[in-house]
Structure formats: C-alpha cells, structure tokens
Automatic annotation (TrEMBL):
This is Sugar ABC transporter permease. It comes from Trueperella pecoris. The keyword Transcription does not apply. The keyword Cell membrane applies. The lineage of its organism: Bacteria, Bacillati, Actinomycetota, Actinomycetes, Actinomycetales. Keywords: Cell membrane, Membrane, Transmembrane, Transmembrane helix, Transport. It is a multi-pass membrane protein. One of its GO terms (biological process) is transmembrane transport. Belongs to the binding-protein-dependent transport system permease family. Its main location: membrane.
Length: 278
C-alpha cells in the first residue's frame, strides 16, 4: 500500500538529493563532460568572501523577517480570534499575499518602492529604498513579512481556537489580566504551533529567492551584495557562470545548515510543548 508513495518520495526527493551531493564533487559547466574534483568545490566555497557575505545576508534577513512575521502573525490571530465583525473578510485579505506568486509580488513592490513610486509619494520623499545598501535588505525583509503574516496568522488562529474556554474562565476567576493570560496560558498552549511556524518560516527565509529576484529587477545581490542571500548565490553560480559543482556544494551546505538549526529548535521545544488541552 505504501509502495506508490515510497516511489514518489524516492524519485522526486531522495534521488535529487543524492544527485546534488554527487554533483558537488564534480567540475561541470553543463557543456563539457563533468570532471571529478573531490572537495575542491567546497574549498572554493569556504574560501570565497562572496559566499560568506551571502551567509551573513541570509542570517540578517532571517533575524529581521522571522521574529517580525511571527509576532505580527500572532497579534493578528489574537485579533481575529475575538470574532469581531468583518473577521472573515480580513482572513481572506491576509492570505491573498501568501497565495500570490512571490516573483510577481517582488516586481509590484519594486514599482511601489521606486524613487517615484507610490510609497515615496505618500511619504513625500524620493528615497531609493532598494538602491541604498542601508535599506535594501530590511526592505526585502519587510516585504517577506507582509507576504507571510497571513499564512502564519491562520495557523495561530487555529491553535487559539483549540484552547478550551474554561481555562480562560478559570484564569479570570483567579484574577489574571489579559497580559498574564497571554503569557502564562496562551503562549504555552500554542507552543506546538509556534514550533511548526518557526521551523517552516526559518526554512522559507533561508530559501527565499524569487521575492529577492523580483525586488532587485533580476539583479540579486544589488546593491553592493547586500541582498545576495544564499539561494540567489546558488542560482548565479549555477546558471550565470555556470559552475554547477560549486552551486551544488552551496546547496549541500544550505541543506545541512537548515537541518542543524531545525534540530536545535526541536530540542528546545521538545520538553516545552503541551499537546493535550482537553
């Protein structure tokens, strides 16, 4: 009964992973025959200042985007959970950016953030948000947060609605205020959802590509390498050079990094989660 699913997982997940690992030991430009070079691609990767700049840009992007998206998503979910008039319409509006194509969103936002775009018209300025090295990466992180808060808020909303009301009633009888209830009851009981959201948000932020590509008008890294996240660097190495072996080595590094951080998150949340709330 499991064979069809196992075949799908094997051919479309496991086989590509193995192929990428193998290619990372080759020198190949997609035209000439591949040549085995051992760990040379990894040595080139680790000795490249540009690669470490992309790691740094990715970490900064994630440190800005993930806390912002999770915090705003939780606040929106708390507001929607009050079931005020119009909450259903707001849920749909929040989800629309997430289901839209990231590349299209990046292009639209690049128009809005242009010196003569709508954002500057509203603010009464002519700031080149995406051409300034000080603002480019934070602006990309802002657009990422805007795109993903709806997705995150829906998961938090489902978690909030699964908490029995009698727990809050008991807390109110004990004199707990809104802040105390949120900190001591709500947040601990939604930790499984928080763990899921953190893991998926981290993976998503480390793999962000099309949004950056759209925002930089097809010049990932502009300006001055500030938006050169790991995924865009892999794309550039693979298809602009092309250096398929180096790109595969960076992909292997990114996979290992994601797995390690996910394991750290899992160990942290493992003993801090409550699954049974009835």
């Amino acid at each position: 009964m499991l064979i069809p699913s196992l075949i799908g997982v094997g051919f479309f997940l496991m086989v590509p992973v193995v192929v990428v690992v193998v290619i990372s030991f080759l020198k190949w430009n997609l035209i000439s025959d591949p040549t085995f070079v051992g760990l040379a691609n990894y040595e080139t990767m680790f000795s490249s200042p540009g690669f470490w700049n992309s790691v740094r840009a990715t970490l900064i992007f994630s440190l800005i985007a993930i806390p912002g998206a999770i915090t705003l998503g939780l606040l929106i979910a708390v507001g929607l959970n009050r079931k005020l008039p119009g909450s259903g319409v707001l849920q749909i509006m929040y989800v629309i950016p997430w289901v839209a194509a990231p590349l299209a969103l990046g292009i639209v936002w690049s128009w809005l953030l242009a010196p003569s775009g709508l954002i500057n018209e509203v603010l009464g300025t002519r700031v080149a948000w995406l051409a300034d090295e000080r603002t480019a990466l934070p602006v990309v992180a802002f657009v990422y947060v805007w795109q993903n808060i709806g997705y995150i808020s829906l998961f938090f909303l489902a978690a909030l609605q699964s908490i029995p009301r009698d727990i809050y009633e008991a807390a109110a009888l004990d004199g707990a205020g809104s802040v105390r209830t949120l900190w001591s009851i709500t947040l601990p009981l939604i930790r499984p959802t928080t763990f899921f959201v953190m893991v998926t948000s981290f993976i998503s932020s480390f793999q962000v590509f099309d949004l950056v590509y759209g925002l930089t008008d097809g010049n990932p890294g502009y300006p001055g390498g500030t938006t050169d996240v790991i995924a865009t660097r892999i794309y550039t190495a693979a298809f602009a050079s092309p250096r398929i072996g180096e790109a595969a080595a960076m992909a292997v590094f990114l996979t290992i990094l994601i797995v390690l951080v996910t394991m750290v998150q899992q160990r942290y949340f493992a003993k801090r989660m409550t699954y049974e709330m009835s």
